[in-house]
Predict the 3D structure of the following.
Amino acid sequence: HGATTTSVVAALQTIELCKVLVKLPRTKTRNTFVNLAVPSLAASEPAPPRRFSINWTVCFTVWDRWELPASLFGVKTLGDVLDTMKKLTGLNPQDVMHGSEIVYLALLMSEPSREDQRIKLRSIPLDQFGSPHKKYVDFRITFANKATPPVIYSNFPTIRLFLN
């Protein structure tokens, strides 16, 4: 059954990809659920992704990626990234991930005994993240609003900063 299932899944994916490539409306695409053991095949219309809104001007889906030219915003260091994102969103950046690496944790860095470490982390140049030949750096950032207690926004889009 393995090869048959793989063939059916590949065929269904190819059909849906062709629909996307010819720019058919989403109402013409399908999610298909296959169980060859029963046998059953069920197709449904995909729902649009859930939209998240943090204020009147900023909203996004889990499929979004924010792409920003670092030079346009004067972003050269991790601290610049945090400051720029705070200005753009009106929220406080909390935690920063680069790939699977935790780069910055605001809760830890807010302790007075870690002031030197906080300054050192914020001054890391963007080109030190990833390989030397990369043209961009991707960060996942968790944000919090200014309410008490703060609301944490952990499902923000990936932020891609182009280095040149």
The two ends are 50 Å apart (CA to CA). The first strand starts at residue 31 and ends at 35. The mean pLDDT is 88. The chain is about 25% helix and 30% strand.
